[in-house]
Design brief:
- With 66 residues, this protein is mainly alpha-helical.
- The protein has a domain of 32 residues.
- The chain is built from 2 helices and no strands.
- It starts with 26 loop residues before the first helix and ends in an 8-residue tail after the last helix.
C-alpha cells in the first residue's frame, strides 16, 4: 500500500493586518466603477478597484501611510 502524505495548502487569503469594510453603491456609481476597472490593463476585481481608487485619492494627503 502506498501512502502519500501531502501538506494541504491553507484556504483563503493570507492573513494581513486589515479589516473588512462593507459598502453599498448606487447603481450609477457601480457602473462607473465597473467602467473604470475595464480600462485598467489587468482588470482588477471590484474590491481591488476600490482599494486602488482610495489609495489614489489619499496619496497626496499629509500623514497618510499609503
Amino acid at each position: 500500500m502506498l501512502i502519500i502524505s501531502a501538506k494541504k495548502s491553507p484556504k483563503g487569503r493570507p492573513s494581513k493586518d486589515s479589516e473588512a469594510v462593507n459598502v453599498r453603491f448606487e447603481r450609477t456609481a457601480l457602473k462607473a466603477l465597473d467602467d473604470w476597472r475595464r480600462v485598467e490593463p489587468d482588470m482588477p476585481t471590484r474590491p481591488e478597484a476600490v482599494r486602488r481608487l482610495v489609495k489614489h485619492a489619499l496619496k497626496d494627503k499629509p500623514g497618510q501611510p499609503l
